[in-house]
């Protein structure tokens, strides 16, 4: 398989529209945003909630709590990546459209997020997933993160401090 160009594009309004299109085309709403009451699928209410969620968490300077990027693969939106500061920790999160998974994109994105985390001044890179998310667990283990399991939740932590 040919090497794909994977880049992180800082989220802005134009990127948010591309991100919504990618989510609608290739993800279940519950994979990419908090639950919204109503029928399953990408209803107009759910699409508006997706936009409001990202505007509040990233785009509105008064409420932003994280940095979010559009994951672009060969110039096409394929998902989102984020870093959220919690004291000395920086928490990473990724979602990829279903057809983009299992192709090495997640590993490249994690490498890019880890590099951004190292430059953020944080001391630790952390992430959470579920026991059933084998792809995410493999990525985190591959980074050398220490893993702990509590029921269905998996927490990963990796020091960003230089050793030795």
Describe this structure in words.
The chain is built from five helices and seven strands; from the N terminus they run βαααβββαβαββ. A seven-stranded mixed beta sheet has the order 1-2-3-4-5-7-6, sandwiched between helices. Helix 1 packs across helix 3 (44-59) and helix 4 (105-118) packs across helix 5 (134-143). The protein has 164 residues and is of the alpha+beta class. The model has no long low-confidence stretch (mean pLDDT 90). The longest helix is centred in the first third of the chain and has 16 residues, at 44-59.
Summarize the structure.
The chain is an alpha+beta fold and 164 residues long.
Helix content: 25-40%
Structural class: alpha+beta
Q: Which sheet architecture does the biggest sheet show?
A: 7 strands, mixed
SSE order: EHHHEEEHEHEE
Count of DSSP H/I helices: 5
Q: Compute the gyration radius: what is it? A: 16 Å
Strand content: 25-35%
Report the uncertain regions. none
Give, in spatial order, the strands making up the sheet with the most strands: 1-2-3-4-5-7-6
Features:
164 residues; alpha+beta; seven-stranded mixed β-sheet; 5 helices; 31% strand; globular
Task: Please give the structural blueprint.
Blueprint lengths: L5 E5 L2 H14 L2 H4 L11 H16 L6 E8 L2 E11 L2 E8 L8 H14 L5 E7 L3 H10 L2 E5 L2 E7 L5
Parallel strand pairs: 4-5
Antiparallel strand pairs: 1-2, 2-3, 3-4, 5-7, 6-7
Helix pairs in contact: 1-3, 4-5
